[in-house]
Structure formats: structure tokens, C-alpha cells
């Protein structure tokens, strides 16, 4: 531990979690002011009455008070606020498919079968993502080209009577009217895929773009931008335009018929559309170099063929194909059969790819099992490393459900005499069966959970004994804590099971509807209630998302609340699907690293990176980058503090290749005891990070965890801090409700769960330990005086000690 000198000061750099926050809340001040940043990534400090940056509260250590500067990094503006960012929720199926890529199991070194399976899985993911884009275009074509342009605007139909009959008969009017929304949608998707966050300082961006850096084994080492993203973007746009042309020309299975030169032109355009779709599928299948670290292999010729100039040529040719398609259809027919056929063909291809992906994922997960076989069960990846398959299934079914959910209300609004494709009857059946199964499953899970909870609280079953240690002598707090501990533990242990149940329910409904459609079995009368229920479910799905976007325009706060979806999905760079919102981690992490390096230029400064919830992942990746770049004498002056973190129970289990357990152990060893984690048993979203297999024995909290040298093993019994917290290894277990109130300190009453970790006085003690100013096993400090006498008796029947 470095000895503190007379010029020692601590910079506490805080990073918030999902849904954003206000600058004042982040730095615990009544006013805050920006001191750096570009408006999207903001560095703020507390402010005085003249709105000047003010110093933070001093940090009390055993020897003397140490000056402290409190800063906060605000990144919520990158994912929430405003209509433009709220509309990103409509791309949620694309984002889920992109996240599924990062959930793939790790590829063991020097294992050729695992390496080949990894290449195949990544290729299938990109093909599935391309089909998801094609499905969206096909479903929009059902609404705009078939339902609206071909049927509603047909001359003589009493639909949208404000459009005169002469206009309806005008050549190419209905074709242009039907294709224009599709082209606009593709243009918007292309524009979204071009949006990227600009890093404030050019030298940071240059450092982040360096190729050839060896894998460090630290958390987030693979989180980097993909150099193949521009090529993937172009292939998606070309495929989307070609699918739109195929639909207008009759569909992928049969073209429109005509005589003479018109027939030859239609055949030529139809063949060119199929060729463009095939080239797009082949391109996304072969592009596989996520980091760009090996451009000499794996398709060097393909990257050359998809350079900037060839991509522009492809886009121009696709645009000419669309214009040709419009010119070939002077008048639309009464129905557009290609829309229904295309939706069904794309859906069947997605099902085939998904089944193949799931089958290939089984041996890949088994080969990767040796990387986690020695870990306790509670630390192993979810579903044995197979979790990517159900997530991908949810992405595909949500994508199909949203399109159908939009088509059904539009048909109802335009008039009941209009007809949707026959396949939509089976889609409503799919969601009706899935909705019914979902209700039954929800009832069964709720009943089982209620029974288990009743048994736990009414039959005298003893559990959550840690709460008894934290709230010894405070019976009322103990009773509230035990109930909160139970629910929080249930959510952490079974949250991924709920995702598996949702995926299973949707897949069962999809299989039933697909079998009936492939066999062309007419729907029996007993299916009508399920179809009606499915219409309601699909309508609710579409209306909920569209209403959220509408409210974001009228109420900006709604847009911020909607950002919780984007905050979780947008951490991951564009890899499988290029048409997703930009990854904020590629901006936040390098700017945090740069800010820390700026502070470390002062030899007396020590920096503690503090992250709450999702912010804990950001600061962990930033700390890993600092350990890679800084010299040894500077690494000793950085510390890490996480609060309400998912770095043990969620991220290593959902993303075993990106945030593996071994990388966290290596990070803990690199920080040499300066990684502290604040956790509450009442927090359903956060949990322990540094310890596991905890148990209470003879009034002591024991467990296994990371040691300061990075090794793992049994730890010394937990020590009690001056505010009642139990410190086991690197985890600080906070009493919730808090002890106190304490004179001169902010206090929060009731169960805090996932919020307001900075209100606990243990926060300051953890910062001092992370800064290397205080030993964990130092002689126990005297407890802080209470502002009121703590409760020692209670009439509660719970009892306990």
C-alpha cells in the first residue's frame, strides 16, 4: 500500500447505471456543473452558489482527512431522451439478435472443432440477422404494397375516399405509393446504422483503433468495433431493396407473367433481384473477422470486393433495380401475392437457420465446458452455454409478431373488407397459443412461488442468515430485510429461467402454427378463440411500442424511461446485425480511461472508478484497459468500486466469452485488493461480485472468493465495519434498511434495494480502501454514534438475533 503524503488527494469518478440520472444525483450535490465532455459524454462536478466547480467532502481515513474530488460521467444522453432515440425501441428485435452473438460460448484455444463451430455459429447468426431484416421489409410490404396500395387504393373501392378516382388510375401512382414507405424505411435503417458516437479526443480514437493487440484476458477485451460493419450494412440494404423488388415482381418462387418485351424485362429484373439476395446471403455468411486482427486470412478477397467503391456500386445498382421495378408496374394488380409468399419463405428460412444454429450450439457448448467445469454451479453459464439460442428465437418471433401486430390494426382502421394474406391467420394462432400458454405458465409459476414463499415464512424455515447478522438487535428491520432478501434472491436465481420459459412458449406456438401452415390444414373452429386472443396480443405488442415512441415526443421523461431497453442492448458493438443503435461503450470506456490518465499526471492523485449497476461493467472494462496501458507505479494509484453490480450473477453467465469468471479474477489480482464491491441482499438486480458459497457458521460469515493476489479460495471470516457492514473479501454487505441515522450524515429510511448506494456511510470507507488509504483488516474503528437509540426489543413475532 502506498503511503499517503501531504499532497495526496482522491478523485472519485462515478458512472451511473441504466435509465440515466441527473448530474446532481450522480455527484450527491444540490447543484452540478460540467467540467469536461462533449454534451453526450459529460464530466460533472458539484457546484457552489456561483456555479463553479466545488471540492467534494473530505475522505476520513485512520491517519487524517484526505481531500477528495467527486466527478461523475453521464452517458444517458447516448441512449435515451427525444423521439429519435425512442424510436430505437422499434429495432429491439435487431438488437436482441446482435446481443445473441456476444452470448456465444468461448472457443477453447488450440481446439480445431471448437474453432470451426465458432465460425459456423457466427456465420449463421449473421444470416439470421439478414433474414430478420428481410422479414421486416416483407411485413411492411404487406401493409403498404398489398393492403394499402393494391387493395385500398384500387379504383372503385370505398377506402380512403379523400383520394379521387382519377388519381388512383394515374399510371405508376399506386406502385410508387406502395413502395415509397418501404424505401423510406430502408433509408431510415441505413441512416441509423451510420450513426456513431464521436470520441472527443482524436488520440483516444487512434489508440482504440490499434490492431494486433494480444488478448489480455481481462473483462471486455473483445468489446471492439468490427471493421466489417460497413460491408454488412451495405449487404443488408441491398438485400432489403432486392426483397422489396421481389415482392412487387411476384415473389421469390414465381414471377409475374407478361408477354413480349415486358415479360423479358420482368424476368430480368426478377432474376437480378434473386442474384442480389443470394450475393447478400453469401457475403454475410463469409464475413467473419470480428476484430480485424487477421486481415490476411478468412476472406481477404471478399473485403477487397466489398471496399468503399464496390459498396457504392452495389447501392446504385440496387436503386436502379427499384426504379426499374416501379417502371415495370404501371398498375398494381388487385392483390400482391408476392408479399404473402415472401413472408412465409423468409419465416421458414429463419426457422431452418435457428434449428441448425441450436444444433451446432450444443457441441460448441460441450467443448467449451472445460473452461467453467471447475466453477461452482452458481457461477457457470446459463443453460450450459446454450443461452444464445433461446435469445435468438425470441428476436425472430418478436420481429415477426411486431410486423403482424402493425398489419392487423391498420387493416381494421382501413376497413374490414380488406384482406390480409392467409399466413397471417396462422401468425395470430401462433401468438394466441403462445399467449394462452404464457398465462398458464404465469399462473403456475406464481402459484409455485407463492407456495414456496409461504412455506419459507410460515413453516419456520431458516434462511438468509446473513440478514440476521446484519440486523442483529433490530427486529423490525430484520423482518423487512428478510422479505426483501427472499424476493431479490428469487429474481436473481430465476430471471434467466423466465427467459427460457418465454422462448419455449413462443417456440411451441410457432411449431404448431408452422405445421398447420406447411400442411395447409384449414383452421378448425376450436382455433378461433386462440386466433382472436392472438390478435389482441399482437395489437398490444405493436401499440405498446408505438405509444411509447409517441409519448417520448410529448413527454421527454417517457423517452428516458424507455431507454432502459437500449441501455442494456446498446452496450454491445454491432456484430451480427449492423442496423442497431451505436455502442456507447466504445465511447464511454476510452473517455473514462483518458480522464483517469489526465488525473494521474499529478503524482499525488489517486483515482477510484465507481460504477453502479450497468456502470459497474463500464468501469470494470475501463479499469482493465488502464491495467493494460499504465506503468506499474501508476497502476498502484487506481482503484475500483462497484455497487449493485451484475458482474457475478449475470454478465459472466450470460456472456461467458466476453466477461468470463477468469477475467474477473485476473482484474481482481491486478488491482491487488483495491477492488471493493458494495452489495445488498435486498437488491434484485445487483449482488456479490468478489465472493460466493457464503454461509453463516457460529455467528461468522464465511465464504470463498478472490484473494488480493488474484487466486481463489477460502477467505477469513467477515469483519464488521463501524456502520454495521460485513466485509468478506472484497464484498461489503450493507445492512438494508440502514443503521442510523448518524449525526452529520445523509440517511435513507426503509429498504433501498437497488438505489442510492452512496447514502450508506460504508461508501466512504470503501472508497478509502480502493484508494489504498485504508487496510481492510485494520483495527476495528469505533462505531459511529447514532442520532437516536437503536432498537433492541421488538414485539414482532419473527424474533431472531
From TrEMBL:
The chain crosses the membrane at residues 124-150, 170-189, 235-253, 265-287, 313-329, 341-368, 389-408, 428-452, 498-518, 530-553. Residues 788-801 have a biased composition (Basic and acidic residues). The keyword Transmembrane applies. Keywords: Membrane, Transmembrane, Transmembrane helix. InterPro entries: AB_hydrolase_fold. The keyword Oxidoreductase does not apply. Residues 778-801 are annotated as: Disordered. This is Lipase (Class 3). It comes from Lentzea alba.
